[in-house]
From TrEMBL:
It comes from Babesia bigemina. Residues 63-73 have a biased composition (Basic residues). Residues 768-836 form the Sec23/Sec24 helical domain. Pfam families: Sec23_BS, Sec23_helical, Sec23_trunk, zf-Sec23_Sec24. GO terms for cellular component: COPII vesicle coat; endoplasmic reticulum exit site; endoplasmic reticulum membrane; Golgi membrane. GO terms for molecular function: SNARE binding; zinc ion binding. This is Protein transport protein Sec24C. Belongs to the SEC23/SEC24 family. SEC24 subfamily. The lineage of its organism: Eukaryota, Sar, Alveolata, Apicomplexa, Aconoidasida.
Amino acid sequence: MNPQGSRVDGPPPMGAADAKSPGASDNPQPPQVIRKIPTSEVMSVRVAMQDVPTAAVGGVGKHPGHHQHHVRKPAAPPPPPAKDQNTVAPPSGEPVKANPPEMVTRRRTSSDVSMASRLRSGSESYYIDRELEKVVFPYGAHTPKKTDYAKLPRPVSNIAEVNDEIGVDQISPMKSFLGQQAADVSVCSERFLSTTLREIPLFGETLGRIKIPLAAVVQPFAEEVDGKVPLVDLVSAIGEESLSKQNLIRCPRCQAYFNPAMEDDYRLNYRLCNFCYNGFMLSEAESNALTALKGRDLDNARVAPIMHGSVDFVAPLRYYVRDLGEDVTIAKQLTSLLSRASELTSMIPLLNNPMSPKKDVVYSTYDVKDLSQQFEGMGPTGHPHHEHLGGAADEPSSEAAAGAPAVSVLQTPASVPSAPQWKKDIVRKPAYVIVVDATANSAKMGLRNAVLQSMRSVFEECAASRTPVKFCVITFDSVVHLYSRRRGFFQVNVVYEVWDHFSPSCADELFIEFDGTNLEDVNSYLDGISRLEVPANASSSCGNFALSVGVSLLAEANTPGTVCIFYSQPPEMGLGYCHNPTVSSDFSMEESLKMFYDGIIQQCYESGIAVDVYLCASFERMPGDVCLQYVSQQTAGIGCSFPAFEAVSDAPKIVKNLVRLFSLPHAYNCELKLRCSKPIEVEESYCPFHNTRAFIDKATLRVPRLSPDTAICFALGMDDLIRDRERLFVQFACMYNSSVDGRKLVRVHTQSMKASTRVNAIIKGARCDTLVNYYARKMAYNMIRSGTDARKSIKEEVVAMLCSYRQLCAPSTPENQLILPENLQNLPAALNALFKMYNPGELVYDYLQKMLRTLLAPTGESKYSYTRCYCLHRSVYDEYAEGVPEGGWGFACLAVPSSATEIYSDGLYLIDDGHKLVLYFGPHVRWALLQELFGKDLLLNETTANTLSISSETETGRNLLDVISRVRALHVGGQFLHLKILPYCSRYRRLLKLLMLEDEAGGEANYEDFLVTMHRQIKLLQSYRVA
């Protein structure tokens, strides 16, 4: 009898029995003994390269985490899909159930000990289901080369073991590079500001020879995972009474802000600027204030807050108030305030005069009145909500109206002096407008209810943290719905299609003040919106008109904030409607639409308003989706896309995004500048908001909002000789309104670079992740702005860089080896992935969204341009053919190359691309395991594939959710990565191929051939330089 299951010593070869050789015998074969390769083997950076690959066909079968080569016949194609679309099990599961493998005698390990733990321990033998192994296939055929596939350098993330607490021994790329506090607190953490070089050459000519670009990536308001940025009130410490003379300590020539490096060579009141090297004297008040602040030790800190490399200064009033008089002092302002208060008190009887006109006004051009009169005479083609408006609006009774305070619009009497504008600008806390599509298509998808339910979860989290939020909700279909609680009653105000702008004059009636304790009021407000029925004929959308309403609400209230708009379809009517929208990857738009958007953008820049766009399409793409994200790009908002929106799986992403928006510190009304030490200058900036309002010069920008997930890249250059300087500095300064308390602050980050004469140290000090961010932005910027392809020039630049390293640092190495610096060993893999994504010839939607995001992406996000792929389970090694193991199935989390040759039909894989997590499983995964994960009544077909969710009621489901949370923990301080479940039968299974970025795609070579080609180019360039 042929044994159907067996044990082998050491890691078994994946797919060893996938296909037989032509002369293979059908007789039973003894168990195969394979030498185990320890997973802790150190990867060599030197990669042996051969110019001519061997001609061979077949694939490589290997266990996840091990790379052992076995030549075989080309992989068989996948089995045909089942004819019955409502089948309960995949067709491939039938032979496995019909012939269950024999269970080998072995000690049952605890379910908490995963396959990965047993693999690494090496103390046990491993089970192989020989019958299942015969039908398992990989998704890509492997062509063996002479290159050692296992030793190709690629990024690897190590996930904590299942028995470990999250974060104990976990090696996080985000944590190792960005999350650690800088050892020297006199410079800022690399999380806030990182340069491509830690050490810089003395001569600009040397920088040109080594070919490493000099750039700085700034994420000024990154989530403070390693301690808060200290707040210093230097203005109060100096004590200057004249508002027009208040100032921070700055260099009088270059206006650089005080930083610890200015204290290196100080003498009494004399300071030397570390940017322009100009000497200047401090006043006595400034010197005393600085001495007092330097001696202050808050919260047992190692050094005083003012001596940190990252500091928040309270901004002097004259920095943002333009009409201050020269002789205005604090005492005079207080006297003026008291006099104005007494005058306003005397005017109270005038304001309460019963003869004053009392007319309830919501808009300056639209009055609240009987809605039946509004649409009287429109006939059967009148307002689509005519039959629903009666129960939607609760009009207050006359008795209640008499007792409630009336809302009136009065002209300010000329005798009452108005407060100066600057008093309104001192504290400006943000507000939020949530604009939701309520068309019939949105109702069919469940978008409106999903957003409202998500907001309930958001405010539950905000209530737990006592986070105050001022917000309102607007919905739209062919009309705009505004919801007010005037006089304590819930009221719906409807504005049908209007072809002109209007200005809201009573915005306070539309906003809800959530203070952390009135959760019931918020839920009542959201319930009232949910009760408004959507008519069946509300199929048209005036989404862009609703966007202009939301922006106008904040602008007229003189309040910075964010407008979050949810689209389910492109706008088809009203202001800014899309004329014949199409699915396109073109970044151009119609002139009329651009003029409309530019008007909104101008209003956003004047009032400090950002726009976040959520595209919730019924299918993979929404027509006109690129144009709909134009405003968010220009205001530094986020553009979030949900292809084939599903409320159950996509709602967590909405919740997390809104929680980050409401609870994390954001910066509004930002004015920022990058300063560099004298030999360095800013040559270019890479960011999406390139318009005349944003750019003051190459180093100075204005932007409505900077979020914790926003970064800006500056390309730098250096020409002059550095004389007598051990370090050069880069300083980023941003004046902004804090979303926490509305105060005007100045955030300053100061970073340093050591001047060096050692080329080897300069190259080995380069930051790979910052370089990847720079190259990704350069490619995306050129493609979006001018449609040019920068891949060739970037590859030539990298080849020249590696050639210089070989000539200057490793001249005696063999020619057949590609020599990579240890710190740059992952650069080729990242570039090969970027070249496939930012390809003008094959710009698919998933890549398009990543490109638009790249221009705002921080370093910790762009480093995932090379996707991380983890093998969680292989059924061919699962001995539980029947039944459920005690404690449920455990899951390994072993990193495998992002190639289709590593994806097997019996596997469960988790893929992380820095934007989302994709859970993929093939047709040969144990059906009992899938039922444990997704429910006993599981159906798999194209209809149900997009509605799967992991059950938390089973031990197996909780084990998988725990692994997913550990992968998410690698992105500490970054955006939330929502989970997309992608079964083999999904209509969107093409996404799996798009994520396998080591394979050939779009005319770009696979990773292995990419390295070979790069090696050839380095050899040619080296020969040319020698000649």
